[in-house]
TrEMBL record:
One Pfam family from the record: ABC_tran
InterPro entries listed in its UniProt record: AAA+_ATPase (IPR003593), ABC_transporter-like_ATP-bd (IPR003439), MacB-like_ATP-bd (IPR017911), P-loop_NTPase (IPR027417)
Example of a GO cellular component annotation carried by this entry: membrane protein complex
Domain ABC transporter: 4-230
Name used for this protein in its record: ABC transporter ATP-binding protein
Alphabetized GO MF terms: ATP binding; ATP hydrolysis activity; transmembrane transporter activity
This protein's UniProt keywords: ATP-binding, Nucleotide-binding, Transport
Stated family: Belongs to the ABC transporter superfamily.
Length: 230
């Protein structure tokens, strides 16, 4: 089943002399349950694409359809709600709230949605993420890997159908990188989620079902890596 589809997605920043055509007619289709890696040189348009897929920016033209909903036809309010319920974001910079504990950071999206945190799922996540003994710690009391695992917990707490990750292992050593990818692939297989991840790391990319390459704002499909853990 198709979960995400873009139609001639374009993004241009600035105007006249300062104009940058960051994305040119991107047509990408992703199936539910798929793990897609996005690779490409710095400045090729990867983050621009991920932001548009997640409804955090507006395209210059074209569409993003997720689960039958045309994202950019929604009002800002409806888009924010859609994003919070359907999409989990993970960034290279962990973007944790410094005054909240690991546990509070993880539960934040549910609170923002005026929902009771699902305590048993939150506990399960913290166990799987190896944060059980660290849940009352503040972000600055956690290692980089633990901070990223907290950010992953926060992205997963609402059981989003799509997880968008922008170089989530970019600041981590190879051991922590592998653990993070293990956790993400475990979660997406278990909950039949879709994972779209930007990465510079070929060891990470080759674990995806499919690799797409971006070059100067143009998308190229690549041979599948297809190393499943399941
Ligand atoms: P990547 O993530 O692959 O490094 P980006 O999507 O961040 O690439 O950037 C693609 C191009 O768009 C680059 O040339 C970048 O300088 C430009 N760009 C990105 N964001 C902005 C912005 N907010 N304003 C102007 N130009 C931008
Ligand atoms: Mg980027």
């Amino acid at each position: 089943m198709e979960i995400l589809k873009t139609h001639d997605l374009c993004k241009t920043y600035g105007s006249s002399d300062a104009k940058v055509e960051a994305l040119k007619n991107i047509n990408l289709t992703v199936q539910q349950g798929e793990f897609v890696a996005i690779v490409g040189a710095s400045g090729s348009g990867k983050s621009s694409l991920l932001h548009l897929l997640g409804g955090v920016d507006r395209p210059t033209s074209g569409q993003v359809v997720i689960d039958g909903t045309d994202l950019y036809s929604l009002s800002e309010t409806d888009l924010a709600i859609f994003r919070r319920r359907k999409i989990g974001f993970i960034f290279q910079a962990y973007n944790l709230i410094p005054v909240l504990s690991a546990e509070e950071n993880i539960k934040l999206p549910m609170l923002l949605d005026n929902r009771q945190a699902d305590e048993s799922y939150a506990d399960e996540l913290m166990n799987v993420l190896g944060l059980k003994e660290r849940k009352h710690h503040l972000p600055n009391q956690l290692s980089g890997g633990q901070q990223q695992r907290t950010a992953i917990g926060r992205a997963l707490i609402n059981k989003p159908s799509i997880i968008l990750a922008d170089e989530p292992t970019g600041n981590l050593d190879s051991k922590n990188s592998k653990e993070i990818v293990d956790l993400l692939t475990f979660s997406v297989r278990k909950y039949n989620q879709t994972l779209i991840m930007i990465t510079h790391d070929s060891n990470v990319a080759k674990r995806a079902d499919r690799i797409v390459n971006i070059k100067d704002g143009v998308l190229y499909e690549q041979q599948a890596g297809g190393q499943h853990d399941a």
